[in-house]
Amino acid sequence: MFSRLDEVERRFEEISNQLSDANVIARQDQFQKLSKEYSNLRPIVETFRNFKQVEAQLKDNIDLSRGADTEFADLARQE
User: Fold this and answer.
1) Alpha-carbon distance 44 to 6, whole Å?
2) How far apart are CA 34 and CA 12, in angstroms?
3) What is the block-wise mean pLDDT of the chain (79 residues), using blocks of 10 residues?
4) What is the rounded distance in angstroms from the CA atom of residue 53 to the CA atom of residue 8?
5) Model pTM?
6) Burial (Cβ within 10 Å: 0-12, 13-18, ≥19) of residue 37
7) Nearest CA among 10, 31, 9, 11 for reference residue 21
């Protein structure tokens, strides 16, 4: 599933680059087609990026909590 979302994200970036290309802008039919595809992909990509950010934060929080537990255990042993 995530590999497919990675592909969608890459396509989104590719379209973004194409939409700023003067040759594409000059060809209104191609520009409109790409703009529509970009608009369709945008909410998917934004949600996927938010998911990846939350996932990274969760991993960091889990790592911190495990580290904190170790520190508390060490303190308890010293007491």
Assistant:
1) 11
2) 10
3) 93 97 96 98 98 93 72 63
4) 17
5) 0.75
6) middle
7) 31
